Amino acid sequence: MTELLHSPDGNILGVERPENYGTSANVSSSAQMSSPNEELDENNSNVRRHRRQDQQQNRTDNDDEEIFKYGASHVVKLFVPVSLCMFIVIVTIKTTTSYTPGGAQWAYTPFTEDKQTNTQRILFSLANAMIFMAFVIAATFILILLYKFRCYKIIHGWLILTTLMLLFFFLYSYFSSISASLNRPIDMITICFLTWNIGVMGMYSIHWKGPLRIQQAYLILMSALLALVFYKFLPEWTGWLILGVISVWDLLAVLCPKGPLRILVETAQERGEPIFPALIYSSTMVYMVTAVDPPREEFATINTNSIANTSNSNADETNENGGFVNAAIRQQQPRRQLIPRADVPQEDVRREEPRYIVEPAATPHIEDDDDEEKGVKLGLGDFIFYSILLAKASALGDWTVTMACYVSLLIGLCLTLLLLAIFRKALPALPISITFGLIFYFSTVYIIGPFCAQLSLVQVFI
Amino acid sequence: MTVMECVGCTMIAFGIPFSMFIFTIARHPFRIIILMTSAFFWLLSLLVSSLLWYAVVPLRSELAFAVPFSVIFQEAFRYLFYLVIKRAETALQSVRLQELAAKGMIFDRLAVAYASGYGYGLISGAFAIVNVLSDMAGPGTIGISGHSQGFFTATAFLTLAIILLHTFWGVVMFTSLDKHGYQRIVGPIVVVIAHMLFSCLTLINRTKTPVYAISLVTGYLLLLATIFYTIVLNGVTLNSFRRSFINVRETTTPLT
């Protein structure tokens, strides 16, 4: 789970994020709206080269400013969906009993935890967690391989199938279990009608096109449903272990030089395609960009001539070391993605006046789009695991635990975004948040909670 | 009935803070982040104080021991938070602070102070009342076996007081730390004393049928005094206040 920011007019803070934890469990959803490969034509590449030079000059000036200017609103734009997702999960858990854990267990976690001794319990839940992680890792690698060899059709098919299953099946079971546990009978026809309509609209907006809000709403809804399912079917200690292990995995997968998610991100950047927009919650209209203008030009530019060009044309940044080159490319990338949008209307404009990209803030074009173009992406997996943690916290019945976990998760997210602004590359969003969340979960349950209970019992305010 | 009581007490405790949030914070992402961060700092201070409470086993039931320490920890973490903000600010100074400030998105000192105080208050109020609220929703009710029936209402009002108090304490602390001279020292001391006073006043609620009038009245008097002190500290005089009525544009409440 990585995340990146595009910044507004193209100064970028990072940008993409693949996510596929969910996939492993048939859960993730995603779609790729981006389009296929196209070769770039010579004209464009020239234009682009100019543009790049200009951009680089301005970039240094603007970057820092952009970080702080838009950083705050990016963070809040992620707070809202994450909170919404958690809210859905908490309300569901608080109002119904149908999502309490226990009973059925998944094939993914074959061992039960009702053992005699703690040692046995730990061993069994460890085994469960390992099996689960094996699925996750296997799914990730399959995805990477498919992507590497450009089997887009298969990936699409896979993602569409999982989304389909997730939306229809889980939505159906959500409705029926809610109605059952609230003791409010709903007839089959209504449930099917609702599921069908909601599901079809979801498929449309996620995999094809639809208003950004609706797409975002569906992604949030799916994450919430998935988190509920995970919460219900994972045995308690297995759940904790998985939370821990998956954040370590996230860290490795995104940051290791050969980490799968990193490879995914980098490949996508090379090809100039956004990564499966439906695996990612994005506060921007990514698919619009990609649908309209083939970003793969970037790919060509960057790979073929870019490195050479850049280092020639721009002494400051690229000369010395490859690291800088990479960084430069990375930064340009998102900007390029943004460019197309602005000139969606007429292709020609772009060729004639490439400069307007250079001074984005000054051009009316871009200002119009401001809100939509800057953005941060957060993997749905992050939503899911945050929500699982919060679900576990809220199930205790002690609201202080819920609040402590909520605050610490969001602070973790804040810190991650801060690091993102500094390092400007895809970062794992789970480790910091989950670490904080776990620390505060357990310390609140065992230490803070009793203290607060005693305080509020005798009405002493600290 | 129980649900109505729950809703009512929620309104009492969070009605004013909620509207403060809507009007002064919600539309400023930067303040939201400050709010969350200061809430996190409060959480850390709570963690430290409950660790102390937990560690000193013999005094665990004697809150008169834990509460003063908790107050000290909270104010220490508030100061720590101030240092963090200060640090961030210096880091930003290299980054064309003036331009940023001109665009209105950067450290407006008063706004930072306000948001951080509000964050402190919000989370501490929430921690104080949230479980009471969830018990309040039913099915049982309080007061049947001789306990005071005003428990819920008093808790709600005290929560409101602590939220507002924290907000103003935040402003006092931050603005006086920004100043030079004696105010730099007086401000934090006033905050610590006021906080200690309020917390220790609530210690008298520990009886079975407490007289809430004492803690409520003194609490709200303390709140008034703090508000007054905050206003004076920020250089609002009667004249400037009057002027703000005459000329609406010349606002005396820079928070908005």
UniProtKB/TrEMBL annotation, chain A:
Homodimer. Its EC number is 3.4.23.-. GO terms for biological process: amyloid-beta formation; calcium ion homeostasis; membrane protein ectodomain proteolysis; Notch signaling pathway; protein processing. Belongs to the peptidase A22A family. It comes from the Eukaryota. It is a multi-pass membrane protein. Residues 1-63 are annotated as: Disordered. Residues 24-35 have a biased composition (Low complexity). The chain crosses the membrane at residues 75-93, 122-147, 154-174, 186-205, 217-234, 240-256, 399-423, 429-449. The PAL motif is required for normal active site conformation. It is found in: Endoplasmic reticulum membrane; Golgi apparatus membrane. It comes from Didymodactylos carnosus. GO terms for molecular function: aspartic endopeptidase activity, intramembrane cleaving. Pfam families: Presenilin. One of its GO terms (cellular component) is endoplasmic reticulum membrane. Keywords: Endoplasmic reticulum, Golgi apparatus, Hydrolase, Membrane, Notch signaling pathway, Protease, Transmembrane, Transmembrane helix. This is Presenilin. Probable subunit of the gamma-secretase complex, an endoprotease complex that catalyzes the intramembrane cleavage of integral membrane proteins such as Notch receptors.
From TrEMBL, chain B:
It is a multi-pass membrane protein. InterPro entries: Aph-1. The keyword Membrane applies. GO terms for cellular component: membrane. Keywords: Membrane, Notch signaling pathway, Transmembrane, Transmembrane helix. One of its GO terms (biological process) is protein processing. The keyword Membrane applies. Belongs to the APH-1 family. This is Gamma-secretase subunit Aph-1. It comes from Didymodactylos carnosus. The lineage of its organism: Eukaryota, Metazoa, Spiralia, Gnathifera, Rotifera.
